[in-house]
């Protein structure tokens, strides 16, 4: 009974430690590129709760600073940046006290006159994705050219381009150009399958000093995937040993008592035959 209770307790502890809910970092307006002096609101959202998560970022000048520590204004589970500056460009993520982290978002802030509005989160295979090339002061329906990995894809008269039924081959670095206004910065678009996993842009698209965090995040993901298999293996081994032990000893009889009972049974058998 005590061994069974211990196994149950270990199972519950392991289950709780390995099924920690992961928060999602969302960005509003939904874009990875912003003009200087734009407004942005970021939030750490969880399926059942938004408490216990802290928004952090890496920039070219600061590492692992949290919202309210010299940047942003906390408002519940939101973090509002009322005026964006070039130094606000960087990698943002949510982090809990227990250690798990959310998806990472790479935000670009530019003082140029053209930006590309593209999905800030990974897109699912088979979905349609719309890219918008816009300027800061003029209407967003000007003719624009769209590029992927440095090569021209197409020119659109309205400044919108829709990629229908995206696949893994559509993953890459995108930018746009509006004649007479200039070229946008580049943004990485990630395409993921049915199993939603966080995919980061290549290290060349990340700001300096963020690579170590990238590696840590990969390690955490592998541990979360491996943990259920470890639990099931330990449980099977423990149950096997428990059953094997039960085949030789009665739970309430010690080995010494069992040996004494064997001697008594042999004496009774001898007297019966005599």
Automatic annotation (TrEMBL):
Domain Ig-like intervals: 100-192
GO MF term list: transmembrane signaling receptor activity
Family matches, as InterPro entries: Ig-like_dom (IPR007110), Ig-like_dom_sf (IPR036179), Ig-like_fold (IPR013783), Ig_Fc_receptor (IPR050488), Ig_sub (IPR003599)
GO biological process, one term: cell surface receptor signaling pathway
The UniProt record lists the keyword Metal-binding: no
GO cellular component: a single term: external side of plasma membrane
Cross-referenced Pfam families: Ig_3
Span list, region Disordered: 250-274
Signal peptide span: 1-23
TM segment ranges: 219-240
Keyword field: Disulfide bond, Membrane, Signal, Transmembrane, Transmembrane helix
Protein name (database record): Ig-like domain-containing protein
Origin species: Oreochromis niloticus (Nile tilapia)
């Amino acid at each position: 009974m005590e061994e069974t209770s211990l196994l149950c307790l270990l199972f519950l502890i392991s289950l709780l430690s390995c099924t920690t809910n992961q928060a999602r970092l969302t960005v509003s307006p939904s874009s990875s590129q912003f003009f200087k002096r734009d407004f942005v609101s970021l939030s750490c959202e969880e399926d059942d709760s938004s408490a216990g998560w802290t928004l952090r970022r890496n920039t070219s000048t600061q590492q692992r600073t949290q919202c309210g520590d010299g940047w942003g204004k906390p408002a519940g589970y939101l973090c509002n940046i009322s005026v964006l500056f070039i130094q606000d460009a960087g990698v943002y993520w949510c982090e809990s006290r227990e250690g798990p982290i959310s998806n990472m978002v790479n935000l670009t802030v530019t003082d140029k006159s053209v930006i590309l509005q593209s999905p800030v989160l990974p897109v699912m295979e088979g979905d349609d994705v719309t890219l918008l090339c816009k300027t800061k002061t003029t209407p967003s329906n000007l003719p624009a050219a769209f590029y992927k990995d440095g090569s021209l894809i197409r020119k659109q008269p309205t400044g919108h381009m829709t990629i229908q039924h995206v696949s893994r081959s559509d993953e890459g670095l995108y930018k746009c150009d509006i004649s007479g206004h200039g070229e946008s910065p580049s943004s990485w678009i990630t395409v993921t399958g049915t199993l939603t996993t966080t995919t980061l842009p290549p290290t060349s698209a990340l700001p300096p000093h963020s690579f170590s965090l990238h590696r840590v995040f990969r390690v955490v993901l592998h541990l979360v995937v491996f943990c259920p298999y470890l639990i099931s293996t330990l449980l099977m081994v423990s149950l096997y040993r428990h059953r094997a032990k039960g085949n030789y000893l009665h739970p309430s009889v010690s080995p010494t008592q069992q040996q004494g009972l064997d001697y008594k049974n042999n004496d009774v058998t001898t007297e019966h035959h005599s």
